[in-house]
Amino acid sequence: QVQLVESGGGLVQAGGSLRLSCAASGRTFSSYAMGWLRQVPGKEREFVAAISWNGGSTFYADSVKGRFTISRDNAKNTVYLQMNSLKPKDTAVYYCARESRPFRRVEGSTNTDYNYWGQGTQVTVSS
User: Whole-angstrom Cα distance, residue 36 to residue 120?
Assistant: First the structure.
C-alpha cells in the first residue's frame, strides 16, 4: 500500500515562494514517476508538474512553467515542488500523486495518469 503525505502549504503574498514536500511510503518509490496536481472548489483537478522515476526528466503545465520546479530525492522517498513568483490564481489544494505504471515517461502527463494520491495541502496566495 502506498501512502503519500504532503506538507509545506500555507498563506503567502503574491510574488512569494513556498516549497511543498511529499513523503511516500513503500519500497517502490524510485520506480514511479511522481506528480503534483491542484484543485479549487468546483473545478476539476489540474495537472501541475511531473518528474520521472529517476529525476531525469520533468514536465510542467504551461501555467506554472518557469515559476515552479519539481524535484525528488529517491533516498528519502520524497518529492518536492518549489513554487516561486506565486500568483493569486495559484491558490488551490495541492496534491502529490504517484503514476499508475512504473518507469513511465512524463511528457504529456495528465491528471488521469495517477492512481495514488495524498490528502492535499492548502496553498493560499493573497493579492
Answer: 10
